[in-house]
Amino acid sequence: MEKFQLSLLFKIVGIGSASGLLYHNNLLYIISDDSNYLYEYNIEAEKLNKIALTDNAQENIAKKDKPDFEAITYDKDKIVLLGSGSTKKRNLSFLYDCETDTVIQNDITDLYKKIKHQLNFTDDELNIEGFIINKRNVFLFQRGNGTENKNGIITVFNSRMQSEIGFTIFDLPKIKNVPATFTDAILVDDTVYFLAAAEDSASTYLDGEVMGSIIGAIDLKTMKLTSSVQISDKHKFEGLTLYNKTATQIEFLLCEDTDSEIQESNIYKLVLNKSQ
Question: Which residue, 216, 111, 88, is CA-closest to 157?
Answer without folding.
Answer: 111
